[in-house]
Amino acid sequence: MADPSSYRPKPGQIPDSPGVYKFRDEHGRVIYVGKAKSLRQRLSSYFQDLAGLHTRTRTMVTTAASVEWTVVSTEVEALQLEYTWIKEYDPRFNVKYRDDKSYPSLAVTLGEEFPRVQVMRGPKKKGVRYFGPYAHAWAIRETVDLMLRVFPVRTCSAGVFKRSAQIGRPCLLGYIGKCSAPCVGRVSPEEHRELAEDFCDFMAGRTGTYLRRLEERMHEAAEEMEYEKAARLRDDMEALRRAMEKNAVVLADATDADLIAVAEDELEAAVQIFHVRGGRVRGQRGWVTDKVEAVDTAGLVEHALQQLYGEERGDAVPKEVLVPALPDPVEPVAQWLGERRGARVDLRIPQRGDKKDLMATVQRNAQQALVLHKTRRASDLTTRSRALEEIAEALGLDSAPLRIECFDISHLQGQDVVASMVVFEDGLARKSEYRRFQIKGRVGDTQVWHGEGQDDVRSMHEVVARRFRRYLREQQKAGEWSEENAVAESEAAGEAVVGTVVEPGETEGTAGPRTDDGRPKRFAYPPQLVVVDGGQPQVAAARRALDELGITDVAVCGLAKRLEEVWLPDDDDPVVLPRTSEGLYLLQRVRDEAHRFAIAYQRSKRSKVLRSGPLDAVAGLGDTRKKALLKHFGSVKRLRAATVEQICETPGIGRKTAETIAAALAAAAPPAPAVNTATGEIMDDAEE
After folding, report:
1. Which residue from 311, 381, 368, 365 is spatially nearest to 340, judged by alpha carbons?
2. Quick check: 248 pLDDT over 60?
3. Amino acid 589: pLDDT
């Protein structure tokens, strides 16, 4: 690992002008390429304190051994040079989009003497005009089959074409009128090329002009009493219309546009592109990428534009490109696109109407593509096994953690504090064993019912202690509990034991302690690893809760969101897993699932307060003013403590209404918590 200060340029050496820079490793390989409006400002940002850098950026600068730059005159030149160098060096730390599946395209080989229409996959080739990509190859073949009646372009391979030329007889398509048979000289190379160019024009969206031309020729043939020719032209028009109908109209103004949407999380991103020509969706494609560098949505869009249009010229770049976020700055990118098209390109975010609705559809496709990619990755047994092994190695565990439980805390400005517990077994979510907790807390040795004063650390200690205290109780009931653990629990009896809210109808497996009717006990199975959403303080709180209960055979770690660092108890420095680690990917999925589950529970509690809270008793107070009051005060408790004058400060609340609210809240005092007389503990809603 290199020290960035060893190759940091001297002060004043870096020019304050646009340019492109390259980081190289100790072997001279380019590992990152970037551009900047000001090279001095951008490069200086890489040589600050390592603790302040994003984890991916920190890995890049410590891997690099040197940095060099090239000054250019404009930001557009910087954009073009950056794209060229990325294509040339393929740097490992740059965003690399890869197709989430192999999309077929309709290709016309205009570089050949006799252009050929065919289905192509993979990277684009020079001298080939592409249309699409399409979702399925059979959709392309159906379209081509309809259009060959009007544009009888060659579709045969080079071997078939050469063989037909040698024997002087065309293939079957030549006999049935779906090929102009240039192999046997029925048309000249110029006439065949004209057919291919008309085919391309029609596929590019210029359909109205060609259909009107056919219609005029049909009427002329009918007037001249050439009815067979008129009937053939009529059938040709019908075939073209059927080919057009296979692509639904999405934009009524016959717009040519590409719509780009991005779905992302901390580690990966999915990009979906819809190609709209003549108001119809002519193609769709998708990419996924690992977010190797610290990049936001605007940066992902800029990289997508570079990859999408880097090799394109002319009409392949549409008049309009719709994106979810604009690159910063947007002017150089728009100018670069305009140069490739040869005309102005409108790069913008759709704000209203059909284009915004279509962008929402593209966004849903991007989100689905990201979920599908993650599902495929998670469902692979080999990948899951490798992830568990990497976690065990990184945390120093004796064996792979086959059962992982993750805890997360959620609240709204300190109110309605809740927690979640999610379970992953063999790397897959076990949703039937998810649990939700309502945090009620304690002060000293006295348990109290309150919502304020909570913090994530105390809440984490409470929820972990409650989960494993119940595990010990059930082991004791099953006769499998040691006397030492019994002593540990009795010593910790003063802790808050506010129970869990369990989703109805859930079970926990088929083995272990059971109730009298044969159902599995709650919390009957301990995990090999506890993951908490947070850093060193949350990890220490979870470890302390386990130590107080005498549980020493369960490992604990935390995953911090900002830098994706893994924290262990009593360690001053985090464990940094490699960016490509499947173990890190699994821990991130577990943490995100716990966060999602906690947020969902917290929101449901907030909506329940709105539906059935004490404000419902106030006559004439609708949902809008209820929300305004809760937003202004943050909680019903604070609202209850407010004066009439303070309530009047809420938008939409007059003095008379404020007096009514104050009187209603004073009359509806909160009930005292129920207490278990045998243990002195505050009981859950379920326990009550």
Report:
1. 311
2. no
3. 86
8 Å CB contact between 73 and 327: no
| 359: exposed, middle or buried (Cβ count in 10 Å: 0-12, 13-18, 19+) | buried
Has residue 452 got a pLDDT over 70? no
The rounded mean pLDDT for the chain is 77
> Which range is most confident: 30-34, 618-622, 660-664?
30-34
Q: What are phi and psi of 468, to 5 degrees?
A: -85, -20
Q: Give the model's pLDDT for residue 386.
A: 82
Q: What is the pLDDT of residues 413-429, one digit of tens each?
A: 666 788 889 999 878 88
φ, ψ of residue 38 to 5 degrees: the values are -130, 110
In the 3-class helix/strand/coil scheme, how is 474-537 assigned residue by residue?
HHHHCCCCCHHHHHHHHHCCCCCCCCEECCCCCCCCCCCCECCCCCECCCCCCCCEEEEECCHH
DSSP string, 414-472: TEEEEEEEEEEETTEE-GGG-EEEE---EETTEE---STT--HHHHHHHHHHHHHHHHH
- Structure-block tokens of residue 163: 């063989």
Give me the residues paired with residue 557 across strands.
531
pTM for the structure as a whole: 0.48
| CA proximity to 584, closest of 60, 94, 56 | 56
Q: What is the DSSP secondary structure assignment for residue 37, as one 8-state letter?
A: S
Distance from C-alpha of 105 to C-alpha of 136, rounded to nearest angstrom:
9
What whole-number distance in Å separates Cα of residue 436 and Cα of residue 196? 64
Is residue 67 within 8 A of residue 43, CB to CB? The reply is yes
Res. 505: pLDDT tops 50? no
Cis peptide before 329 (omega within 30 of 0): yes
The three-point CA angle 560-563-569 to 5° equals 40
380 has pLDDT over 60? yes
Rounded average pLDDT over 258-287 = 82
Whether residue 686 is predicted with pLDDT greater than 70 in this model: the reply is no
CB 584 within 8 A of CB 578: yes
Rounded Cα gap, residues 387 and 267, in angstroms: 15
Tokens of 649: 């400060």
Between the two ends of the chain, the Cα-to-Cα distance in Å is 58
Tell which residue, 236, 23, 25, has the closest CA to residue 150: 236
CA angle 87, 88, 94 (to 5 degrees): 55
- The mean pLDDT value for 593-615 works out to 72
Task: Please provide the DSSP assignment of 634-659 as one string.
Answer: SSHHHHHHS-HHHHHTSTT--HHHHH
Name the token pair of 41.
Answer: 């400002």
> How far apart, in whole angstroms, are the C-alpha atoms of residue 18 and residue 11?
18
* Strands 529-533 and 555-559, bridge-based pairing: parallel
Residue 298, classified by CB atoms within 10 Å of its CB into exposed (0-12), middle (13-18) or buried (19+), is middle
Q: What is the rounded (10 degree) CA torsion for 612, 615, 617, 623?
A: -80
Q: Residue 621 is encoded by which pair of tokens?
A: 């107070």
Q: DSSP per residue over 52-87, as a string?
A: GS-HHHHHHHHHEEEEEEEE-SSHHHHHHHHHHHHH
By CB atoms closer than 10 A (0-12, 13-18, 19+), residue 664 is middle
Q: What angle do CA 287, 292, 293 make, to 5 degrees?
A: 115
